[in-house]
Design goal:
The protein has one domain. α4 packs antiparallel against α5. The protein has about 110 residues and is mostly helical. It is built from seven helices and no strands. The chain is globular and about 50 Å long.
């Protein structure tokens, strides 16, 4: 439900917090925006293994804790995918995307520094 409401706004000008709150409603706002993801998971799941699996979407690549609101942002990014939670990954993985971009840059004569 949250993903369905938020996904269409991603290709529009950035919304204010108040706008997003109106779009998703008070309950979803409190659960996923205003409350650290660790509290939401503790409230909704009793099994630590399940909590850990779900929390992966909130922590992967963030180098933060489940009580940091940055984890909420990461979790929502993963949850929203196309409004359905679906992730689309390039054929061959993200490495293939980087490879294709690198080849195109070289063909255009772009100077790349690492």
């Amino acid at each position: 439900m949250l993903a369905e409401k938020i996904a269409p706004t991603l290709l529009e000008p950035l919304r204010t917090s108040d706008d997003v709150k109106k779009i998703i409603g008070e309950e979803l706002w409190d659960e996923f925006i205003a409350t650290p993801i660790c509290s939401t998971l503790t409230k909704n799941f009793t099994n630590d293994v399940i909590r850990g699996i779900v929390l992966t979407d909130g922590l992967i690549g963030t180098f933060t804790s489940a009580s940091d609101m940055l984890a909420n942002v990461c979790f929502l990014y993963h949850l929203i995918g196309n409004g359905t939670g679906e992730w689309k990954v390039p054929k061959g993985g993200m490495g293939k995307l980087v490879e294709a971009l690198t080849l195109r840059c070289k063909a255009l004569g772009v100077e790349m520094r690492t």
